[in-house]
Amino acid sequence: MATDTTNRRSEGLDRRLYILPLALAGLFAVFAVIAQPDLSLLRGFWEIQINETGLITDPMATGGVGAALLNAALVLLLSTLLICRMRLPFTGAALACLFLMGGFSLLGKNLLNIAPIVTGGFLYSLYKRESFARYVYLTLYGTCLAPMVSFLLVRVRPGFRWAAMAACGLAIGFLLPAIARFTTRIHQGYNLYNVGFAAGILGLGMASVLKGFGVEFTAGAGWSGDGHGLLCLLVSVMLLGLLGAGAVMGCRSWADYKHILHHSGRAVADFIVLDGPGPTLVNMALVGGVGFAYLLALYPMGVRLNGPLVCCIMAMAGFGGFGKHPRNVLPVMAGAVLAALLLVAVPITSPGVLLATLLCTCLAPVAGQFGWGWGMAAGFIHMTIVQNTSILHGGMNLYNNGFAAGLVCILLIPIIKSISPEPEED
């Protein structure tokens, strides 16, 4: 009887948490209509589907602010429904995955270019004779290589482009889960964007083959300067909503929250499993707020919110449920900012540097496990490495910072462990 009661409570909790990404999708849809309350919304949405994407291309510059938000709303909605269909328990892993799906739909993912990749992941599960639920998160993360699908759709001559696009997406979805399971052993859980590392390796191989046949990859360009005020309002509502939901679910004091700060964040660090939904949602709001505050601080220097920057805030907030908290992200960001000021031959407000400063927080477990000094070192090295990694995969890996972070771990973690012992986590 007690077990049945616990299961019913767990299922009820799952249902409440599923409301969050669904509500966020609805919020995006409402703001989409506010931004483009006419037929240009649908025309812009279609333009986003059929145009080339990649680093660093803003869909708000392609189809408009509203069209990009509509695309994000639909991708987030369908991704949430897919996870619901798999009957997976709703934990921090699900929140992190869904926030990345919604966020990176404001940077390069769309319904058309992710569909063949998801299908490829499903085919891989059939090949392994296992439930797709076992691979659904890896498959959704694997849509970070969606720009490769769009690239072939645009660049291949008519008559072959749809077949090339489908074949590429199916291959990505089929191959990436196996690679991602292997790369976890390499960085030992210190890179929260593990699939970004795996996708960088696969993207490197695919781009190299295409370059061998004479294909040239051009760097994406074009950031929208419109909609800053509306996007600030959207982000504020999202973060305040997470904060309020956390309070409703029981996190109403410092004592309720503070234990999260004692986790290193090293994967697998699912805060909903470890500390419950209330503190986790509050933590998500705070981590996302760190990124939001940093961007607002750069407003006098000309930084305005757009699709990619909202994407970064969502990525930070999402992994606030799966490894990140203010105590372990701030040292890494500080190291990245220091590197940008001292070494990088581009302004601190340039697109690549802004994205790297916010997304280098995938290395937060380094600071959480080894202290703020090593966290700053990780951020510093990351900023220097990430400037040179996109050329390897032709800008086709949206999780380029995850790829760079994997390389940072290969370089830094052995050095740290040889110098200082690994501390125990509380």
Structure commentary:
The structure is a single chain. The protein has 426 residues and is mainly α. The protein has two domains: 211 residues, no CATH class; 192 residues, no CATH class. 69% of the residues lie in helices and 0% in strands. The protein is built from 20 helices and no strands. The N terminus is likely disordered.
Structural features:
426 residues, 20 helices, disordered N terminus
Write the layout of secondary structure elements.
Elements: H1 2-35, H2 40-50, H3 59-63, H4 65-85, H5 92-104, H6 111-128, H7 136-141, H8 146-155, H9 161-187, H10 194-212, H11 228-248, H12 254-257, H13 271-275, H14 277-297, H15 307-318, H16 326-342, H17 351-359, H18 364-370, H19 372-386, H20 400-419
Q: How much beta, percentage-wise? A: under 5%
On the 0 to 100 scale, the average pLDDT is 90
Number of strands: 0
Tally of individual helices: 20
Structural class: mainly alpha
3D shape: globular
**Overall tally of domains:** 2
Largest sheet: none
> Could you tell me how far the N terminus lies from the C terminus, measured between alpha carbons in angstroms?
34 Å
| Cα-atom radius of gyration | 20 Å
Instruction: Extract low-pLDDT stretches.
Output: 1-12
In quaternary terms, these chains amount to single chain
User: What is the N-to-C succession of helices and strands?
Assistant: HHHHHHHHHHHHHHHHHHHH
Helical content stands at 55-70%
